[in-house]
Amino acid sequence: MIRPFPSAYVDSRLAWHRRDSLPVRIGALTIGGGRPVAVQSMCTTPTQDVAATVAQCIALAEVGCEIIRVTAPGVKDAHALKEIRRGFSAAGFAAIPLVADIHFMPAAAMEAIEHVEKVRVNPGNFADKKRFATREYSDADYQAELERVAERFSPLARRAKELGRALRIGTNHGSLSDRIMNRWGDSPAGMVESALEFVRIAESVGLRDLVISMKSSNPKVMVEAYRLLVAALADHGAAYPLHLGVTEAGDGEDGRIKSAAGIGALLEDGIGDTIRVSLTEPPEAEVPVARALVARYAGMRDQTAPADAPTESVNPFAYQRRASEIVRVGRDVPIGGGQVPRVLVPSAAPGSPGREPEADARVDDRQLWRLMAHSIPGAERCGAATGSRGSTVTPAGQVPLITVRAGECVDQATIAAGALVLLRLEGSDPGPSIRRALDGLPTGCLLGIAEASLLGELRAYRLLAAIIDERFAAAEAQRAGSGTRTPICLALPFLTDELAITAVAGALLIDGIGDCVYLPAVSDPRRLSFTLLQAVKARVTRADYVACPSCGRTQFDLMEVTAHIKEVTAHLDGITIAIMGCIVNGPGEMADADFGYVGSGPGKIDLYRGKELVRRNLASERARDELVSLIKEAGKWREPDPVKASPA
What we know:
Layout: E1 24-26, E2 29-31, E3 38-42, H1 50-62, E4 67-71, H2 75-93, E5 98-102, H3 106-112, E6 118-121, H4 139-163, E7 166-172, H5 178-184, H6 188-204, E8 210-215, H7 219-236, E9 243-244, H8 252-267, E10 274-275, H9 286-295, E11 327-329, E12 333-335, E13 342-346, E14 361-370, E15 399-405, E16 420-424, H10 431-440, E17 446-451, H11 457-477, E18 489-491, H12 498-510, E19 516-518, H13 525-535, E20 544-547, H14 558-569, E21 576-580, E22 595-601, E23 604-609, E24 612-619, H15 620-633
Helix pairs in contact: 1-2, 2-3, 4-6, 5-6, 6-7, 7-8, 8-12, 10-11, 11-12, 12-13
């Protein structure tokens, strides 16, 4: 059982280090043990259509997919894997492993393990049926349930060991068993314990070729669960490799940003051995996104933590927003102090028609102000500034932007209230220079980073937040009454790649760090900023969607239906709609959705309000209109506003 207060999940959150996972062979491919992160995807064809499935496997391989998963909802589907494996190998792809995806059916798993290199099981439904029942389990009752689960799972683990196959124990947030839910709740801790139960059973029969995953449609929950899992596995003494993914991420930019926020946040900490970007699109579209995401980390080298690194106030296992004071910028816009994260854009950023609100403020960055005081060695001599140059008058209502080389002296009189001050960091240990810069900066401004130094963007911002909070705590302890917690602006002017930006800023927002975002180097900073904030649920400004990526179990055209539902509901602020292809991915996988649209059979749809089934077996041609009616009945419908172009 996992400890209530886990150990750290990384040696230092201020230094990048690739997690030392165990190597696991999946056919000809080895993952973990320092190997490059492998990219996988999943077929959407009916598994018993062998020719179509082989053709899709070939198409995936040709775009660079390294592991391919195929659903096996029944024994006949599992048996078809034999011919799929044969046909795929005959086409020249014997080295690319196939993985069977199993829900509910131990018999299908036992058949599949004979034909493919790995089998994925969901511990929430492999030996249990989801009844959403409330029950108190005594310790004896709980142990009896575990013995029942072991009777069903251990034959598969034993056979996998005999054949030299691997298993993935893939926990999903939305499909935890009633046993886990009643003892652990709907929580990351419950997700981890669900997987560890199956790990212990596999180990009891000698199987250690295991991969583990913790998936959720909420990147915040997903990241917390993986962090907790890494800490729990360290305590357990077996660093099994991890497969990363945000389940039911959706389509288009929303799906890409939501996936990058969750997966990227973990890769930024050196965690992850395989990934899948789950999109409600053809599976071939997933692979280039995943490959682009992992490319950022291919050349990263282990770092040494900064000397005298402060203790972070962040609890990485439970979200809590970092406390900060309120600073008013632009046209009296409050930032910090518990306000929703604000969106800042460059003064010249184009306005464009779209679903996002207007930015909260514009930044005067026509000329980046640089305070060019000459460097004076020694913090004790930084009281006297030597002047500045390159200043301009900031237009009314805009936010002045100033860059400061950390460690140089600053003339406080040149920094207006409400300014955005960006620090230029150098070297691998910028802590001392950050402290010197803070000594010279006035209160009432926003702080960010212009250049991240060798430390990297994520770790530089973590260090900045920790130093600010450390100084605040010290001032409060001395009862000096002068402690301030300056709001932090997640400014990333040095990054142009939207996936990299999302990985860094997403990780920080998931940590509770960030009072506003400023992404000046992308083509549409307003759009990306609001999409990112929506993805990590830091600021919800429109409808949200939980849409599964389709597979051979899907009962309708997911892409077409998802596009239609988004078209008619995108104007509804603050509601979540789940669009799930089959009963396996719903209702459990709908997580915290307000409404659910779930395939219940060929051409048949079930509609849910929360987790309550309220319309059953609707003809698909009626179901979309009925969904709108259901939203209206709940009082959450409004008519769309007339379309207006945003001002330039």
